[in-house]
Design goal:
Blueprint lengths: L14 E7 L6 H4 L4 H8 L4 H22 L8 E3 L11 E3 L4 E8 L2 E8 L3 E7 L9 H5 L2 H7 L4 H22 L23 E2 L7 E4 L6 E7 L5 E6 H10 L2
This protein binds coenzyme A.
The site of coenzyme A has 22 residues, from helix 3, strand 4 and helix 6.
Length: 247
């Protein structure tokens, strides 16, 4: 099956692609495109919104890689194997390919990213100020970051914290350890203009940060272990809809 999808994507290796979508109730015909491991992981999730995010992200990743490679989503050898314990979880990889993959899901958003030859990490969080408490800064921040965060109050504090948090988590996902490496080992240069964290990371892990837009009410970050060329963001809902229409 070849999927007709909205728009054309450049195959250029210096282009990194990001897709954002909403978790969806997918029909069985689409769930059948997932691997046995992806289905088992989702089935183990008792919380329905979590299960929906998991299957939507897994299918979106397959559809996105399929669009770039011209391979039917169900045929792609995408595997998750934890570097730490060998279990069937962790960063997704496309066996035998130079494409590097990343996945994130939270609230009403799932995001996937694909780069060529550069490991990347994508992270998204809902902008819900109620769940951010000042104590969270103690586990996440270096002294330099804490000083910058303390210059924010009220809703601005939550926004600043989530920009910082997603940037740091994106770096650790690109690095491949996730939170097994302490967040304080990544020391970011705070932005001076109220915008997102961008550019090279100060210390701890050599990485570069790029702004992404997961949509209203959400904060996201993209990190890479080497400088990226162009970053292009796409409508993942349209990609999933095209997959549905094309059966
Ligand atoms: C990576 C991590 C920060 C993600 O946290 P989260 O709150 O689930 O956040 P997100 O939704 O943004 O990311 C989830 C995605 O991260 C990816 N991921 C998981 N572990 C990863 C790792 N070590 N490096 C890069 N990406 C990873 C997966 O693709 C996962 O989605 P999927 O399982 O649906 O494919 C967190 O899972 C972590 O720290 N994992 C490593 C430590 C660990 O717990 N290992 C398991 C025991 S050995």
């Amino acid at each position: 099956m070849s999927v007709e999808l909205p728009g054309e994507l450049p195959a250029a290796p210096d282009v990194t692609h990001i897709w954002w979508a909403r978790p969806a109730d997918l029909p069985q015909s689409l769930l059948d495109r997932l691997s046995a491991a992806e289905r088992a992981k989702a089935d183990a999730l008792r919380h329905e919104p979590e299960r929906r995010r998991s299957v939507t992200a897994a299918l979106l990743l397959r559809a996105a890689v399929g669009q770039l490679t011209g391979t039917p989503p169900a045929d792609l050898p995408i595997v998750r194997r934890c570097d730490e314990c060998g279990g069937p979880h962790g960063r997704p990889r496309l066996t035998g390919s130079a494409l590097e993959l990343t996945v994130t899901h939270s609230g009403d958003r799932v995001g996937v990213g694909i780069a060529t030859g550069v490991e990347i990490g994508l992270d998204v969080e809902p902008l819900e100020s109620a769940r951010i408490t000042e104590g969270m800064a103690d586990i996440a921040c270096t002294p330099n970051e804490a000083r910058w965060l303390a210059t924010h109050t009220g809703d601005a504090y939550a926004g600043a914290f989530l920009r910082l948090w997603t940037a740091k988590e994106a770096v650790l996902k690109a690095f491949g350890t996730g939170l097994l490496k302490p967040l304080t080992e990544v020391d970011l240069q705070p932005p001076t203009d109220g915008g997102p964290f961008t550019g090279p990371v100060r210390s701890g892990v050599e990485a570069w940060l790029y702004p992404v837009d997961p949509g209203s009410g959400y904060v996201g970050s993209l990190a890479a272990l080497a400088p990226l060329g162009v970053v292009r963001e796409h409508d993942g809902d349209a990609l999933l809809a095209a997959l549905t229409v094309n059966g």
